[in-house]
Amino acid sequence: MPLERLIGLLEIIAVAGRPVSVSELQQATGLPKPTCYRLIQTLVDQNLLDQPSENGKFVIGERLIRIALLGKSDIDVRRCAAPLLRAAATNFNETVFLARFRNSKVEIIHVETPEDPARAFIHPGLGERPMHACSCSKAIAAFAEPEFQDSILTGSMKQYTEHTKITEAELRAEFAEIVERGFADCDQEIDMGIASVAAPVSIGNIGATFSVGAVGPIRRFGKKYRYDIGEKLACLSEKVSGAIQLCNVAEL
C-alpha cells in the first residue's frame, strides 16, 4: 500500500542518519524508479522530507521532527541533553538548567548543579516560569511569533521585585536586545539576590522550543559575568539542539 511504502522510505532515511540519494532508496526498497520518485516527492510536498541538497540527497524534514518532538516526553529530552548540561555545570561551576516551551508556557524540566562541594549554588526548582520575568522564558519569547509576544505584553504581568519589568515598552526593547545578542538575562526580577542568563535552543526551522540557562547569586552573577556565560550558553544551545534532534531522528 502507498502508506506502507511512504513509511518504509522514512524509516530507511531515519536509520541511515545521513542524507540519502534516490538511487540508494530505490535499491533499498526495490521499488521502480518512477514510483520511488513519486513517493519521495509526496514526502517532500508534506515537509516530511527536506528538499534535496545540491547533491540530490534527502534528509528527515522539519515537520516530521516537529511531530516527533511534540510527542517526546520530558524524560526523553532530559536523557538527550543531560550529559551536555552536566559538563556545562562542571565547566561553569554554576547551576545549569533546561527549560521547555509547551502549551504557551515555559517550564524548567532539568537542572544540573556544580560538582565542587565548596561551591555555594542556587537551585532554581522545576516547573513553570513567568514569561516576562525569567531568563529562560524571555530567551524563548524574544524569538516567538509577534502574535504570541503580543499576548504576553498586553496581558497582566506580576511585579515580583522592584527590578521586574512590567511595561510593554520595556519588554519590547528587551526582546529586541535579546535577539541581537543571542541570550537573555534576569537581574533579580523574580527573587532578590538571584540572577540568571539563558539562550534559546532552536530545533531546525521550528524555532526556539527550549532554552538552556545558568543561575546563581547576584554577588557572582554581575552583568559582565552573565554576558560571558551567555555567550557560552549560546554555543551550548547549538549542541543541545543537535542532541535533541539526533535523538528524534534515531527514534523515528
Give the key terms.
252 residues, alpha+beta, Arc Repressor Mutant, subunit A, Beta-Lactamase, 2 domains, six-stranded antiparallel sheet, 9 helices, 18% strand, elongated
Structural overview:
The protein has helices at residues 2-16, 22-29, 33-45, 62-70, 74-92, 135-141, 146-153, 168-181, 223-251; strands at 20-21, 57-58, 95-102, 105-112, 127-129, 184-187, 194-202, 208-217. The chain is an alpha+beta fold and 252 residues long. It is elongated and about 70 Å long.
Short description:
The protein is an alpha+beta fold and 252 residues long. The protein is 48% helix and 18% strand.
Annotation field: number of helices: 9
Secondary structural class: alpha+beta
Instruction: Give the SSE string.
Output: HEHHEHHEEEHHHEEEH
Distance between termini? 20 Å
Return the domain count: 2
Unreliable spans: none
Biggest β-sheet description: 6 strands, antiparallel
Beta-strand portion reads 15-25%
Q: Percentage of helical residues?
A: 40-55%
The best one-word shape is elongated
CATH superfamily of the largest domain: GAF domain
CATH C-level label of the largest domain: Alpha Beta
- Overall pLDDT, averaged? 87
